TrEMBL record:
Transmembrane segments: none annotated. This is Gamma-glutamylcyclotransferase family protein. GO terms for molecular function: acyltransferase activity. It comes from Streptomyces thermocoprophilus. CDD domains: GGCT_like (cd06661). It comes from the Bacteria.
């Protein structure tokens, strides 16, 4: 399925992985929000965790169709996400609806904290209250 990607951490414009993975491979990049989710500091990179009432700020990126599959595989490796899931994964790639700045809703691939990581974050993690990785202190 060729969905766009919702990025909220090191893949956002100006962050360390943006150019290495996305430059020249995407058609569009638009501000967006993932609703009913909160953000935790990794540290070094963030984790989104589903939680009613929360908001995670990021960007919706649409890959060029001819590189979508290749980019999807590369992002899965970057995020240590195994299609189908593995207990050692850091993230789980899931389909979720995101909201663009104009209010339009669209489905996207989102990397959420994998279940074991989510449990550790909820117990001991540092939440980024703004929901925006670029605002972390």
């Amino acid at each position: 399925m060729r969905l766009p990607f919702f990025v909220y951490g090191t893949l956002r414009p100006g962050q360390r992985n943006h150019d290495a993975f996305l430059r020249g491979r995407i058609r569009t990049e638009r501000p967006a929000r993932l609703m009913d989710a909160v953000l935790y500091d990794g540290p070094g990179y963030p984790y989104a965790v589903e939680e009613p009432g929360g908001t995670v700020h990021g960007d919706l990126v649409t890959a060029h169709p001819d590189v979508h599959g290749e980019l999807l595989a590369e992002l899965d490796r970057l995020e240590e996400c195994t299609p189908g899931g593995d207990p050692r994964d850091l993230y789980a790639r899931v389909r979720r609806e995101v909201v663009l700045d104009d209010g339009q809703r669209t489905p996207a691939w989102v990397y959420l904290a994998a279940p074991a990581v989510e449990a550790r974050l909820r117990a001991h993690g540092r939440r980024i209250e703004s929901g925006d990785w670029t605002d972390r202190a």
